[in-house]
Every structure is written in C-alpha cells, then in structure tokens.
C-alpha cells in the first residue's frame, strides 16, 4: 500500500508540473518562431538592397551570372555625369528648404493644438494630417491646378518646395504634438517661478526637451521630399531632381548608373541616421520609441 501510495503521489506531482513545463515549452517555441519570422523579414527587405549594391560594383551590372569581376567604373561614370549630379544637388536643396518650412510651421501648429483651445480645433488637426494620407497623384493634380489656375505660377523650384512642405508638414505635426502631450509643464512653471521670462523658459527648458521630436519630424520631412517622385513629376516643371532622373534611367535601361547612384543614396541616408542616433533621441522618435520620460 505504501508503494502504491508513493507511486500515486509521484504521478500527481508529475501531472501538476506538466502544465507549467508545457507552457514554458510553448513560450520558448513561440519566441524562437518570432525570431525566425523577424529574421526572414529582414532578409526579405535587405536582399534587394544587397543585390543592388553588389551589382553597382560588378562589371556586368544587369545580372549576377556570368560574374565578370568588380569595378569602380560605374561610380566614376555616375559622378562624372553633370546632369545627374545637378539633379542630386537639386533634390538635396529642395528637401532641405521644404523640410525647414514644414518644421517651422509644424512646430508652431503643434504648440497651438496642444496648448490652446480654439474653434474647429479638431477639424484643423484633421486637415493638417490629410496631406500625408492623400494619394500622391491626387495631391499632385490638385496642386498643379491650384498653382497654375488660381495663383498663376509657373511650375518650378518654388512650387516643388511648397508642395513638399505641404507633404512633410503632417510628419512634423504628429511627432511634435505627441511629445508635447507627454511634456511635464511643471518644469516650465518651475523656471518661471525662478524668475525666467517666457522666451528664456522656452529656449532653456521647453526646446531642449522637444528638440528630438522636432529633429525626427525634420528628418521624416526631408526624406519624404528627397524620395518623392509622383508630386515632383507634377509640380517640378523643368526642374530636374534625382527621382525624375532615376525614373528616366529605369525607362531607358541605364542600369550601371542607376545601381551606383542608388547605392550612394543608401550610404548617405545610413550615415545621416548614424549621426542622428548620437543627437538626442532622434532615431527613437523615428522608430516610435522616444519621448516616454523626461530627462
């Protein structure tokens, strides 16, 4: 009887431990499965970029096989192409000016939305976000009609900068308002209690805390302008930007320069993100993980 009782007790203990063991095993398998899915997703996303970078250095820039060796001739030809370099410079200038305009207006609008109450506030917020979700073709057609018919403007750098400012504005608005809603305003009250005037309080207290969100908004607006083709195609006029030039390369099959300039752009953006990682928490806001706590 003692032996049977002992055996029954051991079985009861095993049965009581098995659910926990099964749960831990399922959790471990689920975790490994998620790692595999994330790994496959990264591979899927990076294979096209890696292939493009490889072909930019390959003698045969169209296919992997037959492999004929590596060369820098494609980069030499690309950077010697005056029209292509002009288009790249134009894109950098347009993106910078449009991002600056979008950032200034976005920051002002964000403070208005968060700090003040006024009629039709939610409608204003909705219209501020609309340019981000309206299809590029629709926005491009609407703006070309507006610029030409209403304002009588000729399509060119000014219309392109204004268009990209409108396009980049919602990104700044969303980033900065999200930061301001979590901002501890008692810090401003403490500064004013210590004798600081409103302007000093803004520069020394408010701006340093919201600066990473502003930087993230500027970065988003700049990239959206730099990579845009559809809106630039409608309102750019005769101004040549890099996306329009790259479209021509695809259309007429100039793969060597296409691969080289694309790889160069990826490298420049990677460097810019690396710099942003060391300036506040800009990349944290871009990734949606910043701004959780005050420093």
Protein described:
With 295 residues, this protein is an all-alpha fold. 79% of the residues lie in helices and 0% in strands. The termini are far apart.
- The gross shape turns out to be globular
Structural class: mainly alpha
Strand content: under 5%
Give the integer mean of the pLDDT values. Answer: 82
Our count of helices gives: 12
The string of secondary-structure elements, in order, is HHHHHHHHHHHH
Main sheet makeup: none
Could you tell me the number of beta strands?
0
Compute the gyration radius: what is it?
27 Å
In helices, the fraction of residues equals over 70%
- Distance between the ends: 68 Å
Low-confidence stretches: 291-295
Can you give keywords for this protein?
single chain; 295 residues; mainly alpha; 12 helices; globular
Summed up, what is this model?
With 295 residues, the protein is mainly alpha-helical.
Task: Describe the SSE topology.
Layout: H1 2-57, H2 73-79, H3 82-115, H4 121-133, H5 136-150, H6 157-181, H7 186-193, H8 198-227, H9 230-235, H10 242-252, H11 255-276, H12 282-287
Helix pairs in contact: 1-11, 2-11, 3-6, 3-8, 3-10, 4-6, 6-8, 7-8
């Amino acid at each position: 009887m003692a032996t049977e009782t002992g055996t029954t007790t051991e079985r009861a203990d095993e049965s009581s431990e098995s659910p926990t063991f099964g749960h831990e095993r399922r959790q471990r398998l689920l975790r490994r499965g998620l790692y595999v899915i994330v790994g496959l997703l990264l591979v899927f996303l990076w294979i096209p970029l890696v292939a493009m970078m490889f072909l930019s250095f390959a003698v045969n820039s169209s296919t992997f096989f037959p492999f004929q060796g590596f060369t820098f001739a494609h980069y030499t030809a690309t950077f010697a192409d005056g029209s292509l370099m002009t288009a790249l410079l134009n894109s950098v200038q347009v993106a910078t000016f449009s991002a600056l305009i979008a950032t200034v207006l976005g920051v002002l609008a964000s403070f208005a939305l968060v700090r003040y109450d006024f009629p039709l506030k939610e409608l204003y917020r909705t219209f501020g976000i609309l340019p981000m979700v309206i299809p590029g073709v629709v926005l491009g057609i609407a703006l070309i009609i507006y610029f030409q018919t209403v304002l009588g403007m000729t399509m060119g750098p000014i219309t392109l900068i204004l268009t990209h400012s409108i396009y980049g504005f919602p990104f700044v608005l969303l980033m900065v308002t999200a930061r301001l809603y979590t901002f501890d305003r008692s810090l401003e009250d403490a500064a004013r209690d210590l004798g600081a005037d409103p302007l000093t309080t803004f520069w020394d207290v408010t701006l340093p805390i919201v600066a990473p969100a502003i930087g993230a908004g500027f970065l988003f607006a700049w990239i959206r302008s730099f990579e845009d083709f559809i809106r630039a195609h409608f309102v750019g006029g005769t101004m040549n930007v890099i996306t329009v030039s790259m479209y021509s390369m695809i259309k007429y099959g100039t793969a060597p320069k296409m691969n080289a300039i694309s790889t160069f752009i990826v490298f420049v953006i990677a460097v810019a993100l690396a710099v942003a990682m060391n300036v506040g928490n800009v990349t944290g806001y871009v990734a949606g993980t910043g701004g959780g706590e005050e420093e």
